[in-house]
Amino acid sequence: MKQLKDIIKLIESSNNPLAVRFEPLFYDNLKPKTNDPAVLKIKKIHKCTYYTALMIASTSWGLYQIMGYNLYFYDLTEKTVFEYLFDEEEQEKAFEKFIKKRKINFSIEELKSDPEKIRKFAKYYNGDTEGYSRKILKLLEEENAVNV
Predict the structure, then answer these.
(1) What's the CA gap between 57 and 124, in Å, rounded?
(2) Rounded to two decimals, what is the model's pTM?
(3) What's residue 1's pLDDT?
(4) In the chain, what is the straight-line distance between the N-terminal and C-terminal CA atoms, in Å?
């Protein structure tokens, strides 16, 4: 049986550990917040400019497409995003820490038995409650069909 991490990797990156996706709206919203602690931490770890730190914060990274902002706001890694991309074990640890800190570390069994947990996971992991819930549900249904 698949684990939650397997489903999310498939949805987010098609299992590509080097996947990167820039989120311009997040960037635009974050840009005026010049003293944001996550951005300042990114700037320090990467030894980069404020605008480069904004780009890193506004980009989703790796297998689980965790936003750079979240990687550093939630202390999921101390590595640069470039080191992070080439370390699948670090990516998995960051995912596990992230879902635990967001209180969405559900098992596959919990998700299968409770549609509200799927919705909660989708909301707090991705922000798109409806669309993301459908993607998870589709993969859970496929998993059921395989295991019958």
Answers:
(1) 17
(2) 0.91
(3) 54
(4) 11
Pick the more confident residue, 16 or 2. Answer: 16
Give phi and psi for 21, each to the nearest 5.
Answer: -140, 120
> Each residue of 67-92: pLDDT tens digit?
999 999 999 999 999 999 999 999 99
Extract the tokens encoding 102: 């967001």
DSSP state of 49: -
DSSP secondary structure, 73-135, as one string: HTT--SS-HHHHHT-HHHHHHHHHHHHHHTT----HHHHHH-HHHHHHHHHHHTS-HHHHHHH
Tokens at 10, concatenated:
């498939």
Tally of CB atoms within 10 A around 120:
18
26: how many CB neighbours lie within 10 A of its CB? 17
